[in-house]
Amino acid sequence: MEAFLAASIVAAMPLLFATLGELITEKSGSLNLGVEGMMLMGAVIGFITAFYTGNPGAALLGAFAAGAGGALIFAVITVTLRGNQVVTGLTLTIFGTGFSSFVGDPLIGQSVPQAVQAYFAARPIPGLGDIPFLGPVFFRQDVFVYLGYVLVVLVSIYLYKTRFGLNMRAVGENTAAADASGVNVDFQKYAHIVFGGGLCGLGGAYLALVFVPMWQADVVTGRGWIAVALVIFASWNPTKAFFGSFLFGALSILGLRLQSMGFQISQYLVDMFPYVATIVIVILSTHKNRKEDLPPADLSVPYFREER
Amino acid sequence: MKKIWIVAVAVILVIALAACGGNKGSAPSAPAPGPGGSPGNSAPAGGGGGPSTTQPLVVGFIYIGTINDGGYTQSQHQATMALQKALGDKVKCIWLENIDDTNSQAAQDAAKQLIDQGATVVIGTSFGFGDGLFQMAQSGNYNNIKFLHFSGSNINDTNFGNYFGAMEEPRYLSGIIAGMQTKSNKIGYVAAYPNTEVQIGINALALGAQSVNPNATVSVVYINSWYDPAQEKAAAEALLSQGCDVIAQHSDTPGPMLAAAAAGKLGIGYDLDNSQLDGLQDSYLTAPIWHQETYLIPAVTAMINGTWKPESYYGNMADGMVALAPLTKNVTPEAKAKVEQVEAQIKAGNFPIFKGPIYDNQGNEVVKDGQTLDRAAIWTTNYLVKGVTAAQ
Question: Which of A58, A94, B33, B181 is 20 to 30 A from A147 (CA-CA)?
Answer without folding.
Answer: A94
